[in-house]
Design brief:
274 residues, alpha/beta, two-stranded parallel ribbon, 9 helices, globular
Length: 274
Amino acid sequence: MRALAAFVISLCLTGCTQVFFQPHQVLVTTPEQFGMEYQRMEFQAEDGTALFAWFLPARGEAKASVLYLHGNAENISTHFANVAWMPAAGFNVLALDYRGYGASQGKPSLRGVQLDIDAAMRALLARPDVDPKRIYIFGQSLGGALAIHYGATTAYRANVRAIIVDSPFSDYRLIAEEKLASTPLTSAFQWLPRLTVNNDYSPIASVKALSPIPLLLIHGDHDGVVPVEHSQRLYEGAGQPKELWVLPGFGHIQSMKEKSIRDKLAAFLRRHAD
């Protein structure tokens, strides 16, 4: 209860939007510790913010490259396991740490992380070992919400073969209102996001503009963090082509732990790379 009260106080004092970012600066592990080849990359966002990423090269000839956008907490060192299988399946991966996360400088904001994603895209396209016409964007949770808006507005739409989002929320204000309404202590504050949350980057407002870029939504029907209805709402608002995989019994961003789902996603990526 004390933690919930502190949460509400932080909303009141700093504005709800900042609560979406929970960065950690310490990298707790690296791909090298798991016997994986990787390269550290450093580049700058348009506003000069220094950014950090890991590039995981495909084993053998790359079929395509994946720009990976992780969730709201920690950093790439605790999220890269979700894409660590991709190089063996024939895909390069660039895993970005947004500003304020890991070794990336600055303080995160919705506008700032969009600049970060754009910088990562440019860094990926500049690599000689990357086919610029075979790029995917894969975002999980907050990263999925970010991916939808970026894909709808980027100047590099022609380079993107598909956008894959796992356990995304559909709207910043809506998810904040749902969280506040979920407990008796905070339910009285559910009006607060309407005043304090920046909804300029709302996925539901952007998703229709993704078309004709293919969109794949993945969501567990036991997700206790972001209800599956968020992906269903995004699916309904999206243009064609689109797919929605609702995973029975799966929780929040748990899909990549299951080999059958990884294999199904790899087949989706190969199909759209041809």
